[in-house]
């Protein structure tokens, strides 16, 4: 079986300050190694501060603000976790609009850990199977999703994982899903 290629695909990574570094870096590396072009979309220009759990990590340069980003210009979206990152995103109307646009267009989305908070705010999980960090279970079920405690769940273009330990399975699944659509 040939390796999945994402050659010619543009992938948006939507993240803000407080993103869990490994949940940004590893999926980005996976899609770039498969040939995709990646852009970091965020709430403000400049850079974002990542974290390694509760410790400061690396800062990453923002390519485009979410207010200026057009979901139509991307083939897929990744929402990394961290606790603060999705909390900032879900309170920003432009970020919520951007996320919802991927679902409205039927484009694939990968989300890990606390990332689904933004999906709840965008009202795009109703009737879907999803996983996340365990503390989001009630939020997701209240929003109409079926929550599963599995390393990776794929449901009609939505790929979700629970935590950093699930990254190998998550990275494989997003590359496969992004390459199949």
From TrEMBL:
Its EC number is 3.2.-.-. It comes from the Bacteria. Keywords: Glycosidase, Hydrolase, Protease. GO terms for molecular function: hydrolase activity, acting on glycosyl bonds; peptidase activity. It is an enzyme of class 3 (hydrolase). InterPro entries: C56_PfpI-like, Class_I_gatase-like, DJ-1/PfpI. Residues 9-177 form the DJ-1/PfpI domain. The keyword DNA-binding does not apply. One of its GO terms (biological process) is proteolysis. Gene3D superfamilies: 3.40.50.880. Pfam families: DJ-1_PfpI. Belongs to the peptidase C56 family. NCBIfam families: PfpI. This is Protease I.
């Amino acid at each position: 079986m040939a390796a999945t290629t994402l050659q010619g695909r543009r992938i948006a990574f939507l993240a803000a300050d407080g993103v869990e570094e490994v949940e940004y870096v590893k999926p980005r590396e996976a899609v770039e190694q498969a040939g995709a072009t990646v852009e970091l979309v965020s709430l403000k220009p400049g850079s974002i501060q990542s974290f390694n759990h509760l410790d400061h990590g690396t800062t990453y340069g923002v390519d485009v603000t979410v207010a200026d980003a057009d979901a139509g210009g991307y083939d897929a979206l990744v929402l990394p976790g961290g606790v603060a990152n999705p909390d900032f995103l879900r309170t920003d109307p432009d970020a919520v609009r951007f996320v919802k646009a991927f679902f409205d267009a039927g484009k694939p989305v990968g989300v890990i850990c606390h990332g689904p908070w933004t999906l709840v705010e965008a009202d795009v999980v109703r009737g879907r199977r999803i996983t996340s960090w365990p503390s989001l279970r009630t939020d997701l079920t209240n929003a109409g999703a079926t929550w599963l405690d599995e390393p990776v769940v794929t449901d009609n273009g939505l790929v979700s994982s629970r935590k950093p330990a699930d990254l190998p399975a998550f990275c494989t699944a997003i590359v496969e899903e992004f390459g199949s659509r």
